[in-house]
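Notes from the pairing session

We agreed to fold both candidates in a single pass and log them together. This is the raw record for the first candidate, unedited. Please don't reformat it; downstream parsing expects exactly this layout.

Candidate A
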Amino acid sequence: MADAPYLIVLALLEQGGQRAMPLQGKSLREALPAGADPGEVGCQQALDLLVRIWQRSDQGSLRRAAGEQSLLMVTVPIESLQDQLPALKAQWLSDGDTAALIAALNDLGSGLWSLTMEHRQPLAYQALG
């Protein structure tokens, strides 16, 4: 189980002139097969996060901070949850450098996707890196 990855979905947004990065995660029983996306478990995690973001809109208007790359999903080793991931989050909150964040997430994890949705289409994963 120690080798099983953790699936993280994170949103890059701005609210009240401040950057924010809410995230949601779930431990996976086993690593995703090479070339596979998180499938239904990823969709459920994204939905959970998006409901929390929607509730957050009661505190003021929100906007995506990184355009099409504002909703990301990454699989990371569970050990990185206490060290690397909080540091990456703090760095992005400080400088807003999305390209550096994506590069660091690519180095940290074993899969990185942006999540997109076309009108009347299901949620789609776009591999990054």
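Candidate B (folded immediately after A)
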Amino acid sequence: MPAESISGRGATRNLTPTRFNLGERTAEGDWLDQVEALDGVTRRRTTVTVERPKSIITRNRSPDIGFDRSVNPYRGCEHGCIYCFARPTHAYHDLSPGVDFESRLFAKPDAPKLLHAALSQPGYDVAPIALGTNTDPYQPIEERWEITRSILEVLVETRHPFTITTKSDRVLRDLDLIAPAAHEGLAAVALSVTSLDPAISRTLEPRAPAGRKRIAAIKTLNEAGVPTLLAVAPVIPQITDHELESIVAAGAEAGARGGFYLPVRLPHEVAPLFRAWLDEHYPDRAAKVMATIRSMRDGKDNDPNFFTRMRGSGVWAELLRTRFEKAVKRYGLGTTRTVLRRDLFRAPDGQQLRLL
């Protein structure tokens, strides 16, 4: 196949997976050069592969995360956020955490049926199911596949509590499901806003909706009675940290019930991809950005330890914490923490879905 242009993608390269001893994929001889000469360079297109997992609920035991189970309808994410901590998961498929993660996607159309079966199990212990914990449930391919919506239909049918975390105003499409659930105390949403500057967003998260659209979505959700949080995540020193106060102000004006922030994390293959992105788009400050990140991560690119990985340490981390707390107080951002009900759950009737 012809060599592909990755213009418009977040990652600037396609790293070969190395952590699982997978073989490097290279063209034989000068075959690739001959194809380029004949056919030119084509734009990388997004492909979707159907995945048939045997189960759909992922269990989590991390003590610094506020949920113990999640459902992910997709693998990979077309939003292309260069900082995405989920990028390394693509290496499990012998695919690159780089451009492959943004363009070689996996969809799980059986997710609603698998969820229905899991909720039907005798003795099922009810707790909120988190959507959007790995890759975004409202990335562009959801418009066609509608797997997230089908999952919500199962959760609404069974009156099961759920949370949604997304960077997309596409969540508003499902307001007809989310709002009634929220009115019963069964649903909450968090919108992640990294930057309000289109010039930054175009390279940082090139295929995600603009930050202002996400702020508008917060307003619409809250006006519909859906408790919605503002997530300033991640905060990137010398790239987006100067916007911290303005993002908090915008979220507060939109009526966000509460908010939180997270310093950028660079696990595994994310670190070299992020460095390459800095060299491409911010060469004038790349060294300073990485030096600041390392100062918050005990001198390393990443800190995998529980609790500190979510807030960082050192002078810079303390500065971010102080700025965020002052901004919350100054602009009146809510501090509500929504507790979802578990007592309304009703197990599915029989083996068939009523809504699907």
